[in-house]
Amino acid sequence: xxxxxxxxIIEVKNLVKKFKELRAVDGITFSVKxxxxxxxxxxxGAGKTTTINIICTLxxxxxxxxxxxxxxxxxxxxxxxxxxxxxFQEPSLDDRLxxxxxxxxxxxxxxxxxxxxxERSEEVLEMVNLTSRKNSLVMTYSGGMRRRLEIxxxxxxxxxxxxxxxxxxxxxxQTRNKIWDYIIKLKKSxxxxxxxxxxxxxxxxxxxxxAVIDKGKIIALDSPDNLKNTVGGDIxxxxxxxxxxxxxxxxxxxxxxxxxxKEGKIRFEVKDSSSFIPKLIxxxxxxxxxxxxxxxxxxxxxxxxxxxxxxxxxxxVKDNLGMRMRGRMRH
Amino acid sequence: MKKELIGxxxxxxxxxxxxxxxxxxxxxxxxxxxxxxxxxxxxxxxxLGFKGGGGGDYLNFMFPGIxxxxxxxxxxxxxxSIVWDREFGFLREVLVAxxxxxxxxxxxxxxxxxxxxxQGAIILLFAPLLKIPITFTVFFKVTGIMxxxxxxxxxxxxxxxxxxxxxxxxxxxxxxxxxxxxxxxxALFPLNNTVKWMNxxxxxxxxxxxxxxxxxxxxxNPALQLYPIWLDIVxxxxxxxxxxxxxxxxxxxxx
Lengths: 331, 255
What we know:
Order of helices and strands of chain B: HHHHHHHHHH
Strand content of chain B: under 5%
Number of domains of chain A: 2
Strand order of the largest sheet of chain A: 6-7-8-3-9-10
Shape of chain A: elongated
Radius of gyration of chain B: 18 Å
Number of domains of chain B: 1
Oligomer: heterodimer
Largest sheet of chain B: none
């Protein structure tokens, strides 16, 4: 199925999607390798769902080239659909049907032979621990159970790629962790490519590679560790009596710029915080009220790249408007 | 091909299963026709001394119209459910499955029409209460017409639904299209002795032909018949075919 000279299962070249004037996806190029977990990380409205919808044939592109398993997603829609399992951001189960019925309908739509359908349904339900509730109507399920059933359904026809669009959106933290446990378990037990999006940066840590996407563009693409290494060391946050003076001092001794952070603190990066902090406290020209150091997270990567937090409440009005417009046009 | 037929079947089956599980909907769906028939109908008949067209009781005249109303509303709302289903529900999942959009539309048309036909048939069972004799032959003939009318209305609804992005326009369509279609269909009053403009509009209303056919079969009263049955059927089939093709085309267009 694949091109002989590559193990890329998805190839996207210069993809653009315009909604009237708005460039929701603005010329992105990337590829997804077979059997990796690939993540899209970015704020709401960055273009993640739009891109996924184009790859899985739900939306047409404005320009560019997208192939999946060697098939053009615009011209060979039905072929492409056979290869993909999809878990949407919005719920897409029929809540008046039971779990088994939802799976049965899905199986027939995807040509799963009737003979093996029952067996496979049991298999995927077992995987997400829903066997005991298989004959209950979905309307009696909790949010987390619905999500698990959707993941099970996405796997029923043995797709080559499973798309998970914000799989933990709207779930409580405990349930979110469980969903990720299932995904990690799935990855261990099956050879499958997983393409996920999230705006919770800690969740994308399980990815082999992450594309950081903002305003329709990919601004970085690497493994989580490599991305974090670009930050340049540990993150130090300080509350002091005189920030301006302290900033100047830090620039002198480390050579890096300190930035204003939340709650009147300043933040900057140093290679080795454990030897730096005692030195700073001893020699600082201003009084330090509090100091903390931590390893960089993907949120710091995003902050470094864009100057904004990934879930910045203080995003400019214009940004917010763009987000909402994209949100509405996402379909 | 077999795969596409399975797709049609699945979408049809899902609508049917949902319908039979929704007991409040089934019970609630009697409320409106019963209200129209026994409250509005009785009121009009007794206070105006109304005699439908060529004689006979007003309730008898109205009865086929109320069966038609049930079919109209049920099939139209089924078609409209595509809109929210596409945004929030099961239809998203179907749209990404390896079956064609045309099969999805076909399944939806058949599902909506089947449910509307069942609803209409249930109302038909009220006939003995109005002392209208319904034989098995009449029952099956009317059921056939009901299915055809339901197809016409469902396809029309799907064409409209394909252009709708949200349910906001729903109220507008109900008030500006559905209610006029109902009022100008000959369901509540005969069309042959109304004012000219009403008569003209009702000729462009596919529901008029459906109600006419049902009334002809149920009441068997030539004085109330507007068109020959064959013409009723030709009009309904033509509108259904045109709307189905248009609906499939609109649905196939990708955003």
